[in-house]
């Protein structure tokens, strides 16, 4: 077991304890707060999904909100059908007479749950194949994904009769899971979301620490060199893009459940860059740190935006600039540096090992 | 047929404003590899400075142009010196940092001036339309088109005919060798960034009579300008001009055939495909690290 894996597992265990017991038991949350924290935890998944493509592979995806939005709309479509007797109300207002064909399969819950993962993955895969086959990288990936996001949001808003347009999908029925009607203000629902977050993190950790993850990191460091070693870089990039998209879709489904509606603002440029902010604040190089970043930033936002809404955005912008300037590896990097200093002081008299030198130079890096 | 000409004209006038915005972005990107997502906010600041000039000083749009150029340029210079300068070797991080700066500028304006939209009146002597047959062209838009061509030529002259331009091109070609010849690349970079920001400010002035002046006005503009730069080819002025006209006219034509929203989606789709086919843009410049 490598050293990094050991740290990650310890971090996961700590997070597991805080999330499962710390929030609900020790802080004594109920109702409204449980719902609020379920929301933060569900956003942790999408931030962690971005860390897989950005921090691990070096692909900055500015369109992560698109796949997140697809997931959230898919869940909302199922609940909307369940919630309306005949046709969804907004379709009646927009003179749509019959349920469109792509709405019909969402009668089934199992189809919805599978589609919420597969359709985002498919969309991510198509964009990935499109881009990575042409060896597009860096800024161009950022531009293409951003343009896709803008186009996609316009599309959703434009087809009001099928998507609810600017209003999104509201008036949703509660989810019924194996005969259990989900109450989003209950502790059971909180545990469901927390369980999803932990499961997603386990998947993420497994990916990062497998050989697959090693190749992804090689691509981040030097895509050409990895190519010369005989790896098909484009297909690795596409696969991680798919997985990241599927996880984002998962996160979106949970988010719709928590908030009880789906809105086109979930696919806005600012939401998408918000995800990037969470990921950067937490530390893009670690999936756990990215998720923690999302949770921390959102908790802060929840607390501070109550006090002053205008000032919060100011602080968010400032925090972001400062993090990029001084902590390119986020809180994760900061913790790592402090940890390193402490252990360095302990082992002061021992000769410096190659490993610690490497760790030192590692801190100044963080270019991509 | 007249509808088509009217639409072509509308596309051209949109393209001319897009060109001024993209020109600044293209120079900044070409020179330093910085994608400046705060560029839209510079446009917004330009619009607000124009409003302030008119509201408090009674300046017309034309009179405020040099003033706006200096003010927004100075803000750009300040931002470059304090923040952007530290990020030259991390191109992707500049996207993030400048987005953060954009949020702050937007919020600052919202707190200081207020979120409601502000009205700026266009110049009096450019009121009215020029009519050729059934094609109606507003004088102001014609002025904007010629003004943007003038800005394009001035920028071209700045880059090719002046000492500053020679130094800038040297730095773009090879930063470290230029430094060996005594060119202070940091100073050149700061001035370039300030010039780009100043251009964005001018664009902000020019669109005030056409757009409503609100704190969020820059966000949609910067995405378009961003696309123009990428399609045009890195830092190529000719490329930026061609791409701006292309995007402006494509938008106009698409919205004539389908509707505005689908038109914009169509343009974005075209842009995505174009980047895929020509990742280095229409007119790639041969630059070295």
From TrEMBL, chain A:
Protein name: Putative branched-chain amino acid transport permease component
Single GO MF descriptor: branched-chain amino acid transmembrane transporter activity
Organism ancestry: Bacteria, Pseudomonadati, Pseudomonadota, Alphaproteobacteria, Rhodobacterales
Regions crossing the membrane: 7-27, 39-55, 101-132, 139-159, 189-208, 229-251, 257-280, 287-304, 316-339
Organism: Octadecabacter arcticus 238
Gene Ontology CC entries for this record: plasma membrane
InterPro entries for the chain: ABC_transp_permease, ABC_transptr_urea_perm_UrtC, LivM-like
Membrane topology type: Multi-pass membrane protein
Record NCBIfam families: urea_trans_UrtC
UniProtKB/TrEMBL annotation, chain B:
GO molecular function, one term: transmembrane transporter activity
Superkingdom assignment: Bacteria
Signal peptide from the UniProt entry: none
Compartment(s) of residence: Cell membrane
Main location group: membrane
Membrane disposition: Multi-pass membrane protein
GO cellular component terms given for this protein: plasma membrane
Keyword Cell membrane belongs to the record: yes
GO terms, biological process: amino acid transport
Pfam families documented for this protein: BPD_transp_2
Keywords, sorted A to Z: Amino-acid transport, Cell membrane, Membrane, Transmembrane, Transmembrane helix, Transport
Chain segments annotated as transmembrane: 12-35, 55-79, 140-159, 193-214, 226-247, 254-275
Database matches in InterPro entries: ABC_transp_permease, ABC_UrtB_bac, BCAA_transport_permease
NCBIfam families: urea_trans_UrtB (TIGR03409)
Family per record: Belongs to the binding-protein-dependent transport system permease family. LivHM subfamily.
Name of this protein: Putative high-affinity branched-chain amino acid transport system permease protein
């Amino acid at each position: 077991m490598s050293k990094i894996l050991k740290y990650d597992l310890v971090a996961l265990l700590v997070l597991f304890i805080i999330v499962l017991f710390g929030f609900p038991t020790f802080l004594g949350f109920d109702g409204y707060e449980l719902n609020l924290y379920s929301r933060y935890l569900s956003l942790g998944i999408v931030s962690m999904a971005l860390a897989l493509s950005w921090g691990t592979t070096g692909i900055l995806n500015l369109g992560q909100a698109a796949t997140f939005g697809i997931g959230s709309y898919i869940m909302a479509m199922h609940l909307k059908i369940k919630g309306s007797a005949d046709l969804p109300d907004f379709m009646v207002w927009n003179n749509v007479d019959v349920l469109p064909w792509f709405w019909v399969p969402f009668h089934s819950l199992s189809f919805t749950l599978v589609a919420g993962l597969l359709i985002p993955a498919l969309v991510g895969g198509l964009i990935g194949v499109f881009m990575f086959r042409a060896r597009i990288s860096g800024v161009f990936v950022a531009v293409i994904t951003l343009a896709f996001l803008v186009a996609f949001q316009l599309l959703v808003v434009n087809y009001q009769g099928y998507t609810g347009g600017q209003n999104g999908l509201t008036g949703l029925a509660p989810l019924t899971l194996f005969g259990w009607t989900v109450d989003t203000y209950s502790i059971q629902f909180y545990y469901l979301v927390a369980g999803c977050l932990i499961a997603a993190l386990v998947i993420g950790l497994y990916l990062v620490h497998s050989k697959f993850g090693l190749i992804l990191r090689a691509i981040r460091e030097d895509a050409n060199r990895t190519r010369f070693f005989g790896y098909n870089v484009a297909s690795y990039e596409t696969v991680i893009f798919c997985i990241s998209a599927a996880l984002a879709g998962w996160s979106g489904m949970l988010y719709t459940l928590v908030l009880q509606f789906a809105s086109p603002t979930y696919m806005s440029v600012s939401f998408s860059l918000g995800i990037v902010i969470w990921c950067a604040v937490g530390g893009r190089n670690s999936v756990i740190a990215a998720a923690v970043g999302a949770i921390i930033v959102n908790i802060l936002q929840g607390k501070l935006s109550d006090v002053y809404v205008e000032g919060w955005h100011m602080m968010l912008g400032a925090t972001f600039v400062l993090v990029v300037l001084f902590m390119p590896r986020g809180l994760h990097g900061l913790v790592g540096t402090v940890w390193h200093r402490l252990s360095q002081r302990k082992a002061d008299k021992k000769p410096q090992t190659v490993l610690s030198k490497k760790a030192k130079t590692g801190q100044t890096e963080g270019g991509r | 047929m007249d509808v088509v000409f009217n639409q072509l004209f509308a596309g051209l006038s949109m393209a001319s404003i897009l060109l001024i915005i993209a020109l600044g972005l293209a120079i900044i990107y070409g020179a330093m590899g910085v994608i400046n997502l705060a560029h839209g906010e510079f446009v917004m600041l330009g619009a607000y400075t124009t409003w302030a000039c008119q509201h408090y000083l009674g300046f017309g749009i034309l009179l405020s142009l040099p003033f706006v150029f200096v003010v927004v340029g100075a803000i750009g210079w300040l931002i470059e010196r304090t923040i952007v300068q530290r990020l030259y070797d991390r191109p992707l991080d500049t996207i993030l940092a400048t987005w953060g700066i954009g949020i702050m500028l937007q919020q600052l304006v919202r707190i200081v001036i207020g979120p409601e939209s502000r009205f700026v009146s266009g110049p009096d002597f450019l009121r009215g339309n020029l009519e050729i047959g059934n094609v109606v062209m507003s004088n102001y838009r014609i002025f904007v088109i010629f003004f943007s061509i003038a800005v394009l030529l001035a920028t071209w002259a700045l880059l090719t005919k002046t000492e500053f331009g020679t130094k800038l091109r040297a730095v773009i070609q090879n930063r470290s060798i230029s430094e060996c010849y005594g060119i202070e690349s940091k100073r050149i970079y700061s001035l370039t960034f300030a010039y780009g920001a100043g251009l964005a400010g001018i664009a902000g002035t020019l669109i005030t009579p056409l757009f409503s002046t609100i704190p969020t006005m820059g966000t949609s503009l910067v995405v378009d300008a961003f696309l123009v730069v990428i399609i045009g080819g890195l830092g190529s002025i000719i490329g930026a001009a061609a791409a701006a006209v292309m995007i402006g006219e494509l938008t106009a034509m698409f919205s004539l055939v389908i509707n505005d929203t689908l038109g914009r989606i169509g343009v974005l789709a075209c842009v995505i495909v174009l980047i895929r086919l020509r990742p280095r843009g229409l007119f790639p410049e041969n630059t070295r690290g």
